[in-house]
Write a structure and sequence with these properties.
Length: 89
Amino acid sequence: HTPEFKVISISSHSNQIYTALSIHDEGEGISPKDLPHIFDRFYKGENASSDSIGIGLALAKSIITAQNGYITVTSSINHGTTFTIKYYN
C-alpha cells in the first residue's frame, strides 16, 4: 500500500517497561471506517487487494498478543499509517 519512491521507516526504542517497534509508511492510509476493524479476522477494508482474505493483521495481532505484546495503529488518508508494537518486559 506504499507507492513507488515513498518511504517505509522502522524505528525502535525501549525503557524499563517495554520495547517498542514502529513501522510507518507514506502510503494511502486506512479509512477511518475501517480502522476499528482491521485486526478482525476475515475483515477486508475498502483498499484491500483483490487476493486478500483478511487474516494477515488478525494473525499478526494474535502472535504479538501471545508473546506478551500489544499492537496499535494510527492512520491518515493520503499521509500514511503507523503500526506500533510494544513488548512488555
